[in-house]
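User: structure tokens for this one?
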Amino acid sequence: MTTYIHPSWKQHLQEEFDKPYFKKLTEFVNQEYAQHTCYPKYSNIFSAFNHSPFDKTKVVIIGQDPYHGPNQANGLCFSVKDGIKHPPSLVNIFKEIEIDLGAIYPESGNLQRWADQGVLLLNATLTVREHEPGSHQKKGWEKFTDVVISKLSDERSDIVFMLWGGFAKKKTKLIDSNKHHILTSGHPSPLSANRGYWFGNKHFSICNNILNDLGNKSLIW
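Assistant:
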């Protein structure tokens, strides 16, 4: 499984790969993919890392689970493959970008274009069984992705962490706020957004302002 992860991450995470919990997780994932339909495609499990190398990551957005419907998940949180209908949370993300930046609502929900600019689109759990949300939770993925966040916090500086909703906000404890920039808001899901906890957070313009102030190239959202 780890043969599919970018070398820049592998050197920082090899110690985790060698731990018993990760070996057990790998066995579980391999068995699940052999016996069931799971998402994303096996070779895309680490797509978030492959499009945003360790030393190039400028922004981190944290999701919870991959989409569990056919042809949706592509290994990047909130993202779907080209040509796939945009899920409600992604619709609200794009609507906020329209409001915040005056951008045109995009045709494709594939966020690879963000990832290739240094946005790590990290789900806490990297795999899921088809039509069974949460089916791969508490198997070791959360422990692993917490280490990913901690490694970025400890070994990098001036990363913008965008934490949306209660689940993502809990990751604040893993991030050194003296070294990094933490933006929090409600989740973009309709339940949260319709209560006024998402729209108007201006995270995308705030993030670009931070990056510009640091002398980093702002992102084309």
